[in-house]
Amino acid sequence: MTTVLAAGDAFVAPELFVDALREAAPEPSALTFRTLRAPWPIEPFGPVGGVDEASGTEEELLEALGDAEIALTQMAPFSARVIREAPRLRLISVCRGGPVNVDLAAATEEGVTVSYAPGRNAAAAAEFAVGLMLAALRRIPSSDAELRNGTWRGDYYTYENAGLELEGAVAGLVGYGAIGSIVARVLRAFGATVLVSDPYTDPARAAADGVELVALDELLRRSSVVSLHARLTPETRHLLNADNLRLLPRGAVLVNSARGGLLDYAPLPALLDSGDLGALALDVYDVEPPPADWPLHGAPNVITTPHLAGATRQTAHRAAAISAGEAARFLRGERLRFVANPAVEGPAS
């Protein structure tokens, strides 16, 4: 028998992992399951035991692991301590775009394979990003809120206050992975010209997709709408900042539904007050949740949502299925598709 820990939460529930692995495993009857449910997303994730974006405690995770050889998870804190105190653990399959809640160095040192689930929320996040663009361009949230409070904003139809269309607009995408490429396809269907800044994108692919690959500064100078879709790394932290945000055309719309650290939030209030930045739509923040004294709370032309871009039921099922698929390959002794530390990849028996 192989013991599997399904360490889920209130979005990707443990039962989703269990059902997905029972369907994918070569011998479901040879599996025994242990479960753990983390408090995310009711409680925000954060650093735990030296790993980022984690939920729950090391003590709870160690107790739940027991003699498990395989762990399927989204947010559980697989810190160096947890990995070293779980000697039977062979595989951590993380159902996220990156295993940020796993200490990869410790996993590699202990011979534990770590897999992840790229693209699991690509459709959801792309749709949400486009929704934020439309909401910001056409003042949908503010006009709804004011009408609910009894105010009919006829002045929104004046030329000075009228919104902007995506058709004919120049939209800039910073990052062109699974999410950015879907956003580009949707924007082109609206009739927008799409610019892309991504040093890892093949120019031939960009040309075939009908997008223009440009440097970041050129993208900012030309785009009336900019949406962030890059991964957060030490190199991309504050990729947009006080210096280059001033390159945007006056009145441009900025959307960040990727990672808070990509954007320097400090200059945004002044840019909004001056009108240099026309509107801002945010789903992610430098601190989550933003503190009560956050300067953008209540600021005009700002749309804020609580990190919801990936929150669809399809994403939860897709995430569990990708993670379980990796575990099933591991059980069959096959090569995994998405390995974060390929030097230690190996079969379960």
Quick overview:
The protein contains 12 helices and 14 strands. The chain is of the alpha/beta class.
Describe this structure in words.
With 349 residues, the chain is of the alpha/beta class. It has 2 domains: 2-120 and 312-344, NAD(P)-binding Rossmann-like Domain (Rossmann fold, 3-Layer(aba) Sandwich), CATH 3.40.50.720; 122-304, 3-Layer(aba) Sandwich (Rossmann fold). It is built from 12 helices and 14 strands. β9, α8 and β10 (212-213) form a beta-alpha-beta unit. α5 (122-137) packs across α7 (178-190). 44% of the residues are buried.
Short descriptors:
12 helices; Rossmann fold; seven-stranded parallel β-sheet; elongated; 349 residues; 2 domains; alpha/beta
What is the strand and helix layout of this fold?
Blueprint: E1 2-8, H1 14-24, E2 31-37, E3 46-48, E4 51-54, H2 58-65, E5 70-73, H3 80-84, E6 91-94, H4 104-109, E7 113-115, H5 122-137, H6 140-148, E8 170-174, H7 178-190, E9 193-197, H8 203-209, E10 212-213, H9 216-222, E11 225-228, H10 242-245, E12 252-256, H11 268-274, E13 277-282, E14 302-304, H12 313-332
Parallel strand pairs: 1-2, 1-5, 5-6, 6-7, 8-9, 8-11, 9-10, 11-12, 12-13, 13-14
Antiparallel strand pairs: 3-4
Helix pairs in contact: 1-12, 5-7
